[in-house]
Amino acid sequence: MIQQYLAELSKIRLLSQAEESLLWENFKVAKSREARQRIIESYQPLVYKIASRITGLEDLFFDLIQEGTVGLIEATESFDPNIGVKFSTFAQHRIRGRMIDYLKRQRSNQDSLEIALNGEELEGWLLRIADNQVNVEEEVSLKLIGQQVNRAISRLNAKEQKVIYDLYMFDKEPVVSAQEMKISLSYYYKIQKKALQRLRGMLSKLRAELKISS
């Protein structure tokens, strides 16, 4: 069933910047429902990417896809193209938030909830480091944060480092990364969970030192 879903996903053509800008104008100004649907469809791979980082269990995966799609629709409705933020950045918070809320209601999926929450924190650090709209003073602070995050990752073992780099920096699919490591997908998620737990502990000290919230 997942393979069938991936086959359908592979048919989606990514939008160019010009195409996306025109679609947003048609949707927000001209109220085109076709433009709205095209935007939602083109960002469905983002829903898949976030869900695949949380679980490899098929039933739960499709539940998260459904919840994430609702989050994507909500993001599409509320997004303002004029605020200077990429829609992908804006939408992923709504998508992941929907998935996390669902996992909180499903008490039997606490491992996946922990992965989702800790993964969200790590991505928050990485987005902060990647922010290129900062002044000189903030740039110095971000450089320090980047050094500390890299140092924290370097303290993980080799398998944990590969999982973190593949998922959160190289945007590699879990199934592909697991195949490269010659391990099962279930074991892959166990490594991910442990690595995120260790990083959370190390980065919480950094957060306390900088007196900022995740």
Looking at this protein, list some descriptive labels:
2 domains; RNA polymerase sporulation-specific sigma factor; RNA_pol_sigma70_r2; 214 residues; mainly alpha; 77% helix; sigma factor; RNA_pol_sigma70; Four Helix Bundle (Hemerythrin (Met), subunit A); Arc Repressor Mutant, subunit A; sigma factor activity
Characterization of the model:
- The chain has helices spanning about 1-10, 15-30, 35-40, 45-50, 60-80, 85-105, 110-130, 135-155, 160-170, 175-180, 185-210.
- The protein folds into 2 domains: about 1-110, Up-down Bundle (Four Helix Bundle (Hemerythrin (Met), subunit A)); about 110-214, Winged helix-like DNA-binding domain superfamily/Winged helix DNA-binding domain (Arc Repressor Mutant, subunit A).
- Helix 7 (about 110-130) packs across helix 8.
- With about 210 residues, it is an all-alpha fold.
- The radius of gyration is 18 Å and the shape is globular.
- The protein is built from 11 helices and no strands.
Write the topology of this structure.
Elements: H1 2-9, H2 17-28, H3 33-42, H4 44-52, H5 58-78, H6 87-105, H7 110-130, H8 136-154, H9 158-168, H10 174-181, H11 185-210
Helix pairs in contact: 2-3, 4-5, 4-6, 5-6, 6-7, 7-8, 7-11, 8-11, 9-10, 9-11
